[in-house]
Write a structure and sequence with these properties.
Blueprint: H1 22-28, H2 37-46, H3 52-65, H4 72-77, H5 80-84, H6 93-120, H7 124-140, H8 151-173, H9 175-183, H10 186-194, H11 201-214, H12 219-222, H13 227-237, H14 244-259, H15 269-285, H16 288-327, H17 332-345, H18 351-374, H19 416-424, H20 427-434, H21 440-447, H22 454-476, H23 485-500, H24 509-528, H25 537-547, H26 553-570, H27 577-593, H28 597-610, H29 615-623, H30 626-648, H31 651-679
């Protein structure tokens, strides 16, 4: 029912400190609700305790509790958000940080409804006040290099980081929160945090995530971006540091700058587009699998070295203890302090893991930005977002933002120049490489480590994002920019190999939806340009038979569309009668029996395409009794649209279904003439 569509990517909700899916097990066991009022009530009561340490412990307990869905009703009944909110401004910095951590977990795990409720409970008032206080506190601590080591300053930055994550989560889920962000002038505050990227990259990354969220489809905020504000983004994006954290930061800032495209001065558009694509290209250039392997080896060597150091220190401490027993002059406290000091010099235990996660997140984000560059989010999802660029290969010119002056310019348009820029930076080639399965050695190593196991899913997600990205590029770029007919045939063979190398591909829903979307777009492009198909009818039927019972509607729509595309090509060839009959029977079965009207409509559309023309198609339609089947189904389809349509489907989907209903009537009339002619 129309061309293949690609949705813009939104950040999924996640727990920064734990598994938000833990509630599923609790619900399955029948726990939750009133039973959780006990710990919730006790912890919330302790929030008012005169001791800062007790308040801090209560906040820490709530940070764990809010990750369990069964606990949410009890927390809501006891107004947890209103009781936690004031602690964001508690006299104790430690309480502020743990309170922000609890709200961060709640906003991350709770999703849209919980975040919207947090806004209703006025969490934005103390949150914005906290962000302003942290900003002022950081300014007051900038006195000397020694101050940079001050524990108070570090605490303020930690609090700001937690608060930024709360703000990001809430703005991601609530348009009201974004409006408050605009109204309260939060942009100036968060840009001040971002300007500290050289000394606190973690805080800068949190800000960049938030900025990427609030700048999307927010013309009111765009008016607030002055030339100095844009220079802060430029400085962060062009940072020469190449650590994984900075790679992630630069990728996120590139996404934010893309959201600001409507205020980019016309003579700077080419430089900015190329700067963004240069960063995305460099991110995708990195071999994540090999880097994960190296990082795991580095972690292993570091831990072994640390163990040896501990053994040496243990031996030294034993000797010192023997000496203490004899002399009884060296206080025991000194030995404890010495041991703690040595331990503090050891690197963080998760350094390599953090860097690996940062790289994988950067690559996933880069792919999502490319998809969003290709797609708009208007109701039809069929109009490409407008942008422009040139094929210049260098990054920003020094004064690319200096002429902003607040003027709003016309949107950029997707032109021949940006197609060329994509090609110059080898974007299609790099995306193609990311569609391959993750490095098997890296997957095996991560699978065997409890702390690294989560990276397997991240690597698989990158493959799926690359496939969706490939779908966008195949739909967007012309054949020449994709490498010509031979390159498309090679790509089709590659996708077929990916698909059929997994015997149980139908069980991997995310992968199946992504690869079927890419195949659909590719086969459509090949058919439109008269490029011969590489997948055999047997392969296609294997794909469709295995996928048509998927619980994912998108998968079913894709495989039905793929059959329609292939069938319409085969209908014009000789000797394809039996294959067309198989395709026709399959599509007819889906059209009449699939529970989703969207899938049924797509199947009917595919039937119209396959049997619209061609001698073989006409013979096949008569032999499978297509006309009588469609005549029988026509009133059923009409009734289903009338009964189910308004309650289950969007206005856009209903509009498409009405078109299918009208085309069905016309197609039945056409088939009547075909049958009369062939049976005369």
């Amino acid at each position: 029912m129309g061309k293949s569509r690609t949705k813009r990517f939104k950040r999924p909700q996640f727990s920064p400190t734990g598994d938000c899916q833990a509630e599923a097990a609790a619900e399955a066991n029948g726990t939750g609700g009133d039973e959780d009022d006990g710990p919730a009530a006790e912890l919330l009561e302790k929030l008012q305790h005169p001791s800062a340490e007790v308040r801090e412990c209560a906040c820490a307990g709530l940070a764990r509790l809010v990750q369990q869905r069964p606990a949410w009703p009890g927390l809501a009944r006891r107004d947890a958000v209103r009781r936690l909110g004031p602690l964001l401004l508690d006299p104790s910095l430690a309480v502020r940080e743990t309170a922000a951590g609890a709200l961060r977990n709640l906003s991350a795990c709770g999703g849209f409804e919980v975040c919207d409720d947090m806004v209703t409970k006025d969490i934005m008032t103390p949150l914005v006040a906290l962000l302003k206080e942290c900003s002022a506190g950081l300014d007051s601590n900038e006195m000397s290099p020694q101050e940079k080591k001050d524990q108070n300053r570090n605490s303020i930055e930690n609090i700001a980081n937690e608060a930024m994550n709360v703000l990001w989560n809430i703005c991601e889920c609530s348009s009201r929160a974004v409006s408050i962000f605009n109204k309260e002038g939060c942009l100036e505050i968060v840009l001040k945090y971002l300007s500290r990227f050289s000394t606190n990259v973690d805080l800068a990354i949190s800000v960049a995530y938030c900025l990427q969220t609030v700048t999307e489809d927010n013309p009111e905020l765009l008016k607030s971006f002055s030339a100095p504000a844009l220079h802060v983004l430029e400085s962060a994006m062009l940072s020469p540091v190449t650590s994984m954290d900075y790679i992630l930061l630069k990728t996120l800032v590139a996404g934010t700058i893309w959201n600001l495209k409507d205020i980019i001065p016309s003579k700077s558009q080419a430089e900015i587009i190329n700067a963004i694509l240069k960063i995305l290209s460099e991110v995708l250039d990195l071999d994540a699998g090999e880097i994960v392997i190296r990082m795991q080896e580095a972690e292993k060597q570091r831990l072994e070295a640390a163990a040896e150091t501990e053994d040496i220190l243990g031996s030294a401490n034993h000797d010192a203890l023997m000496e203490d027993d004899e002399m009884e002059e060296i206080p025991h406290k000194r030995k404890v302090r010495r041991k703690t000091f040595i331990s503090d010099l050891l690197p963080p235990t998760d350094k390599e893991l953090r860097e690996s996660i940062a790289l994988l997140t950067a690559q996933q984000t880069a792919l999502e930005i490319i998809v969003n560059m290709c797609c708009s989010e208007d109701p039809s999802d069929d109009e490409w977002e407008e942008l422009s660029s040139s094929d210049e290969s260098d990054a920003f010119m020094e004064n690319s933002f200096s002429e902003c002056g607040g003027q709003l310019l016309s949107p950029l348009c997707l032109s021949h120049e940006v197609h060329t820029a994509f090609t110059n930076y080898l974007i299609p080639k790099k995306i193609f490489e990311k569609t391959a399965f993750p490095n098997s050695t890296a997957v095996d190593l991560c699978s065997r480590s409890p702390t690294w196991k989560s990276l397997v899913r991240k690597m698989n997600t990158i493959q799926c994002r690359a496939l969706v990205c490939l779908q966008s590029l195949v739909s967007l770029l012309d054949v020449d920019h994709l490498g010509g007919p031979a390159a498309l045939q090679t790509l089709a063979q590659h996708l077929s190999q990916l698909l059929f190398s997994q015997p149980d591909f139908a069980k991997h829903v995310d992968f199946l939806e992504a690869i079927s979307s890419a195949l659909r777009a590719l086969l459509q492009t090949m058919a439109s340009n008269n490029i011969s198909q590489c997948m055999t009818p047997d392969q296609l039927m294997t794909l469709c038979t295995a996928s048509i019972h998927s619980s994912n509607t998108g998968v079913r729509v894709n495989v039905v569309s793929i059959l329609g595309i292939t069938g319409s090509v085969l209908a014009k060839e000789d000797g394809t009668l039996e294959t067309l009959k198989t395709i026709g029977c399959f599509l007819l079965e889906v059209a009449t029996k699939d529970p989703s009207l969207v899938v049924a409509g797509e199947a009917l559309d595919a039937l119209f395409d396959v049997f619209a023309d061609g001698k073989e198609a006409e013979r096949a339609s008569v032999q499978i009794k297509l006309l009588s089947a469609l005549k029988e189904f026509q009133p059923v389809f009409k009734m289903k649209i009338r009964k189910e349509g308004r309650g289950k489907y969007s206005p856009d989907q209903l509009c498409v279904l009405d078109n299918v209903k009208m085309n069905l009537r016309r197609f039945v009339a056409y088939q009547e003439t075909v049958e009369k002619r062939l049976t005369a």
